[in-house]
Amino acid sequence: MDRNVSSFTVLFQPPFWVGIAERWDEEGYSAARVVFGPEPTDAQLYQWLEREWHKLDFSPAAEGERPVTGRKNPKRARREAGEATRNRGAGTRAQEALSRQREQEGLARKREAKSRREHQRQEKYLLRQQKKREKKRGR
Fold first, then answer.
1. How far apart are the first and last CA of the chain?
2. How crowded is residue 9: how many other Cβ atoms within 10 Å of its Cβ?
3. pTM (2 decimals)?
């Protein structure tokens, strides 16, 4: 049975607290980044996740291995969770996914600016042609 797996990591990247949401589903691996101001409490995080998780703008899906979700000894799971919070912040895969998302947003911005410039160029051209015609008519 293939299940969707999600994780949410909160870490401090000076000067703000940042949340990294990671998701593994049938399409692949994707990530999203959220900036919190001051350090959020557990209750605030829980409420925020309930309210905002579905609104997150995840990066495009990339190939990635799904984490193993077997049952673990609770003591081992607690120890591994403690090690994960102490040793590492955002995973490399999350950083790559976020950079892909930023890159795509930049490309979209470039396309929009190019079309806007082209539209302005076309308007200027039409205005010049209209002035030329009026000048030829002696107006």
1. 79
2. 17
3. 0.49
